[in-house]
Each structure stands twice: as structure tokens, then as C-alpha cells.
Amino acid sequence: MTAVIDKVTSQSTKDLVARLLAKAKAEGRDSLTAPEAKELCDVYGIPVPQEGLAKTADDAVKLAEGMGFPVVLKIVSPQILHKTEAGGVLVGVKSADEARAGFQKIIDNAKAYDAKADIHGIQVQQMLKGGQEVIVGAVTDPSFGKLVAFGLGGILVEVLKDITFRLAPVSREEALSMLDGIQAAEMLKGVRGSEPVDREALATILVNVSRLVDEVPEIVELDLNPVFARADGATAADVRVVLDFNAKVQRYRPNEEEILEKMNRIMKPKAVAVIGASIEDGKIGNSVMKNLINGGYKGDIYPVHPKLQEVLGYKAYKSVKDIPGDVDIAVFAIPAKFVAQALTEVGEKGIAGAILIPSGFAETGNVEGQDELVAISRKYDIRLMGPNIYGFYYTPLNLCATFCTPFDVKGKAALSSQSGGIGMAIIGFSRSTKMGVSAIVGLGNKSDIDEDDLLTFFEHDDNTQIVAMHLEDLKDGRAFSEAAKRVSKKKPVVVLKAGRTSMGARAASSHTGALAGDDKIYEDVLKQSGVIRARSLQDLLQFARGVPVLPTPKGENVVIITGAGGSGVLLSDACVDNGLDLMTMPADLDAAFRKFIPPFGAAGNPVDITGGEPPSTYQNTVRLGLEDERIHALILGYWHTIITPPMVFAKVMVEVVEEMRAKGIDKPVVASLAGDVQVEEAADYLYQHGIVAYPYSTETPVAVLGAKYKWARAAGLL
Amino acid sequence: MTAVIDKVTSQSTKDLVARLLAKAKAEGRDSLTAPEAKELCDVYGIPVPQEGLAKTADDAVKLAEGMGFPVVLKIVSPQILHKTEAGGVLVGVKSADEARAGFQKIIDNAKAYDAKADIHGIQVQQMLKGGQEVIVGAVTDPSFGKLVAFGLGGILVEVLKDITFRLAPVSREEALSMLDGIQAAEMLKGVRGSEPVDREALATILVNVSRLVDEVPEIVELDLNPVFARADGATAADVRVVLDFNAKVQRYRPNEEEILEKMNRIMKPKAVAVIGASIEDGKIGNSVMKNLINGGYKGDIYPVHPKLQEVLGYKAYKSVKDIPGDVDIAVFAIPAKFVAQALTEVGEKGIAGAILIPSGFAETGNVEGQDELVAISRKYDIRLMGPNIYGFYYTPLNLCATFCTPFDVKGKAALSSQSGGIGMAIIGFSRSTKMGVSAIVGLGNKSDIDEDDLLTFFEHDDNTQIVAMHLEDLKDGRAFSEAAKRVSKKKPVVVLKAGRTSMGARAASSHTGALAGDDKIYEDVLKQSGVIRARSLQDLLQFARGVPVLPTPKGENVVIITGAGGSGVLLSDACVDNGLDLMTMPADLDAAFRKFIPPFGAAGNPVDITGGEPPSTYQNTVRLGLEDERIHALILGYWHTIITPPMVFAKVMVEVVEEMRAKGIDKPVVASLAGDVQVEEAADYLYQHGIVAYPYSTETPVAVLGAKYKWARAAGLL
């Protein structure tokens, strides 16, 4: 058995890798030969079959006899990548005669397939018997870098694309989680009398492969396909290693401390310059000035304009360089063509951040123009927000550094969007639902500041309890993942990844690469990073609104208490959809609930108190649910009746929840309200008092609770 | 090749089936033996391997040559049950010599294994070669009756439960649709160089199996596992037939004409009796009277009460039998224990329908009480609605035969719910969103009237354009499917099936049975019946509201026109999620759109008109989209700006849509509105004018459009 290799890669391994790479590069190859790949596997602790290279039929017989029949024969030629297609593979070769005949046949086939192919010989390989076929692979993603992949082998799996990814390198625990991360995970546990596979052996291969690709940047794709996983080990039958010697340009990536220092100045500025401040109604530079002033920002505001003396009562300056004091951010409200010059002045002035509202850069094809801004920003160490954004809001400072409408519903949710339209939807929704917000940030083209910078700021921002982000791509997925992993331990991070159904295929020369859909990588990495993924804009908004309202549950036991049996069924469906555990009701607790409900009501879970009950029945059962320590969260199903009207229900529920909070009992409670229009007012009242409630929906309250649970689990709080 | 068997089953086949069943029953067996199953397959055109019994080695050779090599040889001896153990099986017998030698070897082995064994001979069986392993099966569902199933063979498929069902019997077209109905459908089309399977041969087996189980009620489960599907045919390698001689009790099922006659009297009554009418506030019998009166019902209202002379100004009667004129429905508002007696009087009076509001029947375990009501209803031919319901509304008659609040928002959507709570949610939602409703019906325990009765009524009801149903089960799934198939050709039928995530496993003795999850059967049969399945309560309500607002599209080409690029991406995601085709923009149309949008905007699809545009840009591009005949539906993405405020956008859109309608151009248009709170008013305005619009959501407008498309396709209109 092969163990996880040492944490420190030995000099001899490094030398071997260097030699293999140098040879491939010298020969103009973009892949390793099979024998080279085997050498690499040997030093990286990746078990492969015994093998040898036969130059002649006699060689083949000798090698086969040495390792024992049956064997597999495979063509070795740098030009022939798809060996099976070329008739270059013979399996189950059982005797010396067969080996001799097979050697000749493969050589003939190879020549017929590609007359110019450079044939190095025939690889004779020990034939692996039995076990479950799996694939272990690695790919390089433009945003996330090296990823390791795992799936079952075989054509069916290819058709179903049942494969899972993790950022490389992976720990043993992460590797083990991959084995459970495929739909067909049960296959590995022994079905229909077959033995379970050796999970540790597979995890070891995954760890070692991830280490290999992480340490060797030139390996851009890798396939172990198939790996035979048995009850007592696992062996890779075939290894493919694809190389790329062109190094990727690195994105600017300051360290955490540097990010924080700059982001604090940007998000909480003491002084703001507005470049292109205007007195003309309808102009962006006018809207920005008005929003700063009318929003109630208490810091210094410096309009910058080439000709004006004053803008809306504030003294104007010809250039930011003329402003007497320190300035933290400059909001740009000038056409694209003037931005570079103004940015240079911003740099010379030592301003921390440029809020680049102007469009007309990469999004319109003007990549050069944007690159120029980035170059200036690096020269002067300015952080850029945008270009092509609406600006940003930071409500604790009453700061509306944007051309949109002012916003004043303060609270604990920080939101960002890549797109302006989505930003406006956030503003409208927040105002309409009274969702308290700490910040709304437009990221636009993300020439510099992106989600990981924001995450790092919000991580340390006491005014923020949840971060909800709309994004279309990640400029640096790895930096995002690192930040999200850290931040999500403290605060929920919700992401709506737009473009998730993108049909864009990726060019790939490996099998794993061909299986790697963009969205599957995002899905797995976001999960690995502790992020709650929103499936729709409404999810993003409702999670941002509801998750901070709920206290963190202390355990997995969820109980439904409902006045409508029908709601109970739909709420149960929603629990399953959202991965919530409906507690199996202990006999004593069941009996306790039964005391409060009519004899034809149903205890168990859901607790069906039946429709005609007075407020006291809701009160008694919910109090019991809150008091009993075995229950960790409640889902309420309300049914509008004359005997318990909506607002009566709402007030009674708030009363009992507050009574319990006063005793130090604080559990998440969500509610679904079925009834006439008065339930809307009742839902608002409940929400304002810490009970996440929705009218005419059984799914949304449970989805919000599910999001809270997902976060609590990922943060290790459950 | 075996063809689909004749439509008329021959007498000899019927005789064979009768003989096989009689023998099995006489022997107390609940399955057929392998030779019996083969006989059945032969007459029903289900290909199984050829086989014959050889008494001598010469026989064996002759048989093998007849069916073609390779063959399998198997000992036939009543004493040798474990044939392989006894050395009594030889596979892959390739020639006459091998057959001759094999015959002798098996005989020798058998004698050595058990000298006393009575050897009948050697079974020679055609050996099936290669191909794709699939499963064809049949199960009996308590609600749907006989279903035929199809899936791939092998353990992995079992783990993934990738199997599809149809009601038996199936047509050739339905059978072919099953081949595309599994996740792994691609496997049948030839992947990685393998040949595609013979789809017609598989369809023939499915058709014939479905015919067999349909014609023979005693066959409750059937497995062909595996079936080897090749490029030139398909053969079942193993057949298992499970029998049950206990006939199921039939539910009362009137014919369509009978249903319609009664349902017309019930839903559009000329006279209503209220049994248990009360003058006491808060009593159900009081609420029902008030709702009838205040709702504005113009027919006769007859309160029934043992003592009162008058209720709310209406003359009261001691019994329905005392009422002078004809009565169409009696609404029951009395305790459960009095219902049976009153129902008998209702029967004697010749009343068409009993609206059984009272609870305390099957839902509380009182199954006997409910059965008693059903027996009375059959005796007098009364149709029962309920028991355990809120009653029903039929707005064209201003009829509120219910104890809930009156309801007056008239329109074209008919809704039903199995649960009272969901009924109240329907009322609240409808009132809040001004969704026009023709009927809301509570079905409760469904002792008699159920979804197929309602469907049949709504099919012929000119006041109804869409039927939306919440249900937890179907008492007669087959009757529902037949009605839904018929009705959905004319009007959309939307179903929210609650309890869809039920974990309840079903007891099954066949392989197919074990794979049959309740929800998978509902999923497939609802689809087969042309039903649009709602995934959540909100879906049900929004589809009921939005689908009738949209005209039926004339083709699949959908175009997105958006002011916000970010919304465009999310709307595209939603299109993929909802199975909508984003049209590939023809060059001339692309050029035409470009004329209206800024140079940095993006044509193609989505058409991104960019954010800063005036109302005329929205107007011009939408007009073009409506005018061009190649485009069949539009999705609009609006972004709130100063230059095009929400209500300006809404009015301009309505203007252009109405201008086109006046010209006879009517295409479905939906809109997603991103902006500050004013977009809510704009969305309402758009909705009222036939454009399905939602604020802060990209997913809902597209889901509604998707539902319309699903219906149009199922109804054969596309």
C-alpha cells in the first residue's frame, strides 16, 4: 500500500520532475510518455501497474512472463494519443504466443493509423483484475487554477457527467468528501453483495495527485483513467499527463493586511472627491453630489471641475491635487477618455481608491483602456472599483457614493453585484421589504477590487453580519475561495452565480477536462469554500434578508407545527428539498404535544394542531417546541380562521418567542402563512420581530431556514 | 424481428393465458416458472432466446446449428437445482464439436454430482451477444394501475434510480418517448464508437409488455432483466412474472356524460340548501349563509334547521324534504354524526350534490363513517364533495358556498386544493394580486368527487381558461390521467403534487417494483397526461395567474431584450432552466436591432440595449421583436434609470404591445423589472395590460413563459 507522500518533496523528486519537463519541452511535446508518467507516479505515491517497454516481440514476451499473464499491450507513440481508436491496445493477453502476435498487430495498426507516427515500442503492462473503475484527474481552470477531480469510470458516467472537483491541493478529509460528492457514491460502498472499495487508498491517490499538480505548474491536465478500486487498495491502470509551458499572467493580489488597510479607507472614507461634479440636473456628476449630500454623509466632500467655483454649495477644485486635505476616495463621473489622466492625478494625490463609474472600457471591447488604468493604479498603489459601476453605499456612514437613488434602510446585510441592474433590484427589494443593509457595492468590470477584497473588508466590519454577492465570473477564483473559506466561518456568504447554465464548452485534451463543466466547478468550489449558493435572484435577496434575522440553530432537529395539514405536507417537502432533518418525535414529547391538540389532530412531526384551534393552541405547542431542548428549530404553518385571525396569531407568536428569549432560549422560527390578504401584514409583523414569515409560500421560509443551516454546518457550528 | 402484436388478442393466446394462470393458482404459486414465462413472451411478441431440449449429443448439435452458435448448454434435472455447482452449465459453446463434447461432459458431471438424478436432457439456449443491457418492466400502482417501465441495466442504474414509467398500454410513440425519458438516454444513441441500439425493437417490446399486463390483470409485476439491445434487435435474457389473484375493489367511476350532468348542477346550482344554517355568529352554518347572501348569489337559498323559522331573512325548513322546489346542492354545516341521516334525506329529495364541509371522517380515522356516506350516495346517486372541506366558490354565479371569506375577483383561473389551508392561500393570493378566478374548490377527503370530475366540468366551462390543482394523492390516477390528457389539449392544467419527497418505500417483489418511487411515477404520468407540474405553491399560484394572461406562442424562438446586461445573463439562465430556446439571431435581424442600440450595446440574443437608453430604444427594439415573424416570444429586462423611469417604461411597453395587437400581432411578452420600489407599480400596470411582469425577479417571469410553452407543446400547438 502506498501512503500519502511526505509533506516535503525531496530533492530527488524535484530533480526527476525537472528532468522530465526539460525533456518534454526540448522535444516540443505537450504530454509525458507513458513510461515518464509512470516514473512521476512512482515518486508521487500513485500506484500504477508493473510495466515495461518492449522494443521487440521477444522483449514483450519476456516482460509479460516476468510480471505474469494476463497483460495489456499498448502502443507508445507521442503522436498517438487516442490509443484505442488507433487499434493500439490489446487487453487480456494470456500467453507468450498471444503476446508475440499482439505485438505485431499493434505495430501494424499504428502504422495504418498514422504512417508518420514515431513508434517508441509497445508498453507491456500488468493487467488489473476486478474492482470498481473510477477516474481521478486534474484540470487547470482559468479562474480557480489547479483542481483535482473524481468520478466513476465507464461510459455511463461520462454520459451523466457525474464528477466532482476540489481545489488542489486537497487534504485527506477533502479527498474523502469527494468520494461522497458524486451522485453514484453508493457504488463505492458495496452494492448487491460487492465489497466496499478501499476509501483510504482512493483518498491517498487524490491527495497525491493534487499535490503533484499543485507543485508542478506545468502539468495542466492529468487523467488516471481508469483507477481500479478494490477492497484492499487502488491502482491506476492508465496515466495521461498534459503539459503547458506558457506561464499564466498573475493578477495583482495584495495580502490580507494590505487589502484591509486600503478597503477601510475606501469603504469608510473621511473625505470624498467627486471628479466631474456637476450642477446640471440629470448628469451623473450631479446625482453623485446630491446623493452624497442628501444621503447625510458627514465627511468632507470635494467637487472637482475644471471651471466651476462651487457645486451645490461646496467649493470646487480644478484637480484633486488642489484639494487641501487628505482624500480617501475619488468618485469618477467623467467620460472614459478623461479617466486615465484624472487617475494619474488621483495617484499623485495619494488617494486610496478610485470609484470608476464610467463605462466604455473592457465591457465595450476597450480592453487597452482598462489595462492602462490598471497600470496607473499599480504605479501609484490605488485600488480601483469598477469601471462600469453604479458606485457603492455604506449605510453606517450614510454614504451614497453613487448616481442611483439615496438609500437609508440600515441593517446588517452587505450586498454586491457585478451588474448595475441587479444593484438596482437590490435597492428596490431592500426598501420594499425593509431589509436592513450595511453596504451595496457595484463591482462591474472588476479591473482590480473584486469579491475577495470585499469579503475581507466585510469580515472585519462589525456593521455586517451576512455577505450576499451576485457575480458572473470570478477574476481570481482561488483568492475568492480562500477569503470565502475564512469569512464564512464567521459570517454567512451567499452567492448568486449568474451564467450557471452557460453552454460554453471548454477546449480540453484530457478526459477529465472534457467532463469539467464550468458550473460544476463553481458548484463544488463554492461548496468547498463554505458558500451558500443562491439559485435565483429572489433566493439571493430573501437569504440576505432572512438569514441574519434567525439565530444560529444548536442542532439538526427541526419540528413543524401547523394548523393546516396541507401546509404540513408542503413544508415537509420543502424540508427534504433543503436538507433539513425532521426530528423523529420521542414518545414523551409526542404525548406532551397531544395534550394541547384535539384528539383527531396528529402529533408526530409535523405536529398538526388542526384548523379550528384558538390562539392558545398555537401558543402552547410553540412554547413547548421552544422549551424542549431536543428541538432546535421550528417551522410554523398558519391557517387563517375566524377563531385565530392573522394578526392575533402573529402577536401571540411574537409574545411566546420573546418570552423565551427573555429566558435565554433563542431558536430559529420561520412561518408560512396561508390565508386572506391580512396574512401579509401579519408576515411583516412577524419578520420585524425576528420570525421569518411569508404569505402564500411554504417553500421560501423553509429555504431561508435551510440556508441558515447550510451556513451553520459549513462554519462548523453544528 | 418481432413486430408489435395484433391489436386483437387471439383466442388461442387467451386460452394459453387462462391455462397458465389456472395452473399457477392451483399450485398456490404467485409467479410463473421460466418455461411458462417464455410461452407467454412468445405469444405476446416479446423476444427471448431460442432454446430446446436435447436428449442426445446429436440433438444438441442440431438445435445449436438451428439457432446459431454460440449457445449455452444447461442440465435439465428436477434433482439438480444448483446447475453451476453441479458442473451442469457450459457457456460460449462455439461449434458442433464443442457442443457434442459439452453434452457428454455435462452428463458426466451430473452423474458424478448425483448418481440418482433423473436427467431429462440438456437445454440448448441461444447465447445473447453484447449490446446494451436495459430493463423493461411493469408494476401495478394502487392509484394508477398498470405501468410499464424502462431503464438501463446494471447496478449503477439501480443506484441512480434512472428509470421511467408510462401508463399501460403504451403506443409506439409513447414507448419511443420512454427511450428518451431516462437521464442516460444518450447511452442508447451510440457513444464512444458503439452502435446505436435498435429503438424500434425496444419500443416493440415495451408496447407488447404494456399490452400483456393491461390484458392480464393478474400480472401485477413483470421484469425483463436484462434485455440485450443491439443495433439489430433486442432480446430479453431473463423473464420474471409476479401474479396476484386478489382483484382490487373498483372506485365509483361514472362516464363523462354522467359526470358533466351532475357537475353542472353542482357547480352552477339554481337552488342551494344549507343544512345546519345558523343565526349564531362564528358558526359555520352562519358563515355559509352570509357568504351566499353577501357574495351576491342570485339563485334560491334554503336554510335547513330543526327549530328555526327563518335564518338571516330566509325561510328555514326542518328537512330538505320540506323544501318546495328543486334543489341542486346541499351544503352541510352540521357535526359528523348527523351527516348520514341528513344525506339520506338529501338523496330522497333528489339533490345532485352534497357539499360536505364537516370533518371527523377518514382524516381522523373514521373510515367507516365515510364509507357509510359513500354507500348512501351510491344508493341515491348523489355526488359528494368532501368531507372535510371549506366548500367552493364559482364566481360567474357569485356563488360562495363556503365558510371562508367571500371572494369576488372574477376571472379565468379555476383552482382546487385538497387542503383547506392551501385553499385560503389561494384566496389571499388571488385577492392580493388581482388574479381573476372562476372557481376555487375544496376537495378534502375526496370520498367521491375528485380532480377528474372537476377537470371534466372545467373542460366545458367557458368561464375557465386554466385549471390549477393542489393535490396530495389521486384516488384514481388513471381516471385523472385520462381526463387531464383530454382537457390539457384545450386548457392548461397545472398540478402541485404535495408529498412529492415522500420517503415511503413500497413493498415490491420485482426489480422494477423496487425502483418505482411514488414521485417518479407521478412525475412521468403527469407529463404523459400533458400536465404542467408546479414545483412549489408559488409556482402553482403564479402559473395560474400568469399563463392565461399570455397568448399562445406560435413557435419556439424566444428573444431577450434587456437594458441591464446582468439581467440578460440571469434571464438566459432561466430560459435554460425552463426549457426555452433562445433564438440564434439571423444576421439581418441582428443588423436591424443594432440600428436602435448604442454602438457598444450587444445585439445577438440577449439584445443588450444598455442601461442609459431613453424609452424610444425600448420601444423600437420591442416593436421590431414583435413585428419580425421569426420571433415568437419576448422577455424584457428593464433597468430603472432617470431617463426611462419605471412607469414610463411600462406605459411605452403597453403602448407598443397594444399597437401590435391592433394589427393582429399577439405574442407572449414577459418582463423582469430591476429598480427602486416604483418598479412594483410598473409591474402591476404591465400585468393588468397583458405583460407578465415581476419586480426583483428574473426567474418568475421566465418560469411563467416556460409553463405556457410546456402547455402549448403538450397540447400539440407547437
UniProtKB/TrEMBL annotation, chains A, B:
Cross-referenced Pfam families: ATP-grasp_5 (PF13549), CoA_binding_2 (PF13380), Ligase_CoA_2 (PF19045), Succ_CoA_lig (PF13607)
Record InterPro entries: ATP-grasp, ATP_grasp_subdomain_1, CoA-bd, Ligase_CoA_dom, NAD(P)-bd_dom_sf, Succ_CoA_lig_flav_dom, Succinyl-CoA_synth-like
UniProt key word Nucleus: no
Residue span(s) of domain ATP-grasp: 38-74
UniProtKB keywords: ATP-binding, Nucleotide-binding, Tricarboxylic acid cycle
GO biological process, one term: tricarboxylic acid cycle
Molecular function via GO: acetate-CoA ligase (ADP-forming) activity; ATP binding; metal ion binding
SMART domains: CoA_binding (SM00881)
Keyword Nucleotide-binding set for record: yes
Residues annotated as signal peptide: none
Database matches in PANTHER family: COA BINDING DOMAIN CONTAINING PROTEIN (PTHR42793), PEPTIDYL-LYSINE N-ACETYLTRANSFERASE PATZ (PTHR42793:SF1)
UniProt similarity note: In the N-terminal section; belongs to the acetate CoA ligase alpha subunit family.
Protein name per its UniProtKB record: CoA-binding protein
